[in-house]
Write a structure and sequence with these properties.
Layout: H1 6-15, H2 28-39, E1 44-54, E2 61-71, E3 75-80, E4 83-87, E5 91-96, E6 101-106, H3 119-126, E7 127-137, E8 140-149, E9 156-164, E10 170-177, E11 182-192, E12 210-213
Parallel strand pairs: 6-12
Antiparallel strand pairs: 1-2, 1-11, 2-3, 3-4, 4-5, 5-6, 7-8, 8-9, 9-10, 10-11
């Protein structure tokens, strides 16, 4: 997975998970534990999201929309305007539309990575987490968690997640990189356990596209 799409996987992990009951009186560790338990009941998920980026040096801003599918077993499909990334847990296809090029490589699982199958398991070990308050997301109230990496060499300064206290799903995530790039992801639609076909986690390069197979 390319580095700039790893936060999308974090978003997927967070948004696919619902807590089992309200968060009243819970600390950050309690909330994360509930999300971990709920994850066991999620087989697959479909998410539509918006990504907003504010670049630290230039202060320029960009917005993108995308769709992300996930099925347990390290199977993901990320579709954005200019790029599609697909993995079946064995191979990874990265289709760069402007370059008309598909890169194929072996899927490499990294225990410290932002994988949907791993992120919540890694949170207690890799981040200091606190509840920093409540905010409104439209007409809904959300509990806000702040996570600070314990590793001083992390590429992130901090990460925040907004947990909807009515639907008990995470609806927003924000990350500040050490380069001061601020990335915000907002869920616009989510479907839990929609019964995704395995074929959606395979990729057939379009006719005329350059294919580079690194396997």
């Amino acid at each position: 997975m390319k580095k700039n799409l790893l936060p999308v996987l974090v978003l997927l992990s967070a948004c696919a998970l619902g807590a089992s009951n309200a968060f009243a009186g819970d600390d950050a560790g309690d909330i994360i534990s509930k999300l971990q338990r709920k994850y066991d009941s999620i087989r697959d998920v479909s998410i539509t999201f918006r990504q907003d980026v504010q670049f630290g040096v230039t202060k320029a801003e960009q917005s993108f929309s995308g769709k992300l599918l996930m099925k347990k077993g390290n199977r993901y499909r990320i579709e954005m305007d200019q790029q599609t990334i697909v993995t079946d847990g064995k191979s990874v296809w990265s289709f760069n539309k402007p370059n008309n090029q598909v890169l194929i490589d072996n899927f490499k699982e990294n225990p410290a990575s932002f994988s949907p199958d791993k992120v919540l398991v890694n949170v207690p070990n890799n981040y200091s987490s606190t509840v920093i308050g409540k905010e409104r997301l439209g007409s809904q109230e959300a509990t806000v968690l702040k996570l600070i990496p314990k590793n001083p060499t992390s590429s992130l300064k901090w990460m925040k997640v907004w947990v909807d206290t009515d639907e008990l799903l995470m609806k927003k995530i924000q990350m500040l990189e050490t380069s001061d790039n601020l990335m915000t992801y907002v869920v616009t639609d989510i479907k839990l356990n929609p019964g995704l076909a395995d074929s959606q986690f395979q990729f057939e390069p379009p006719t005329g596209v350059e294919v580079i197979d690194l396997r």
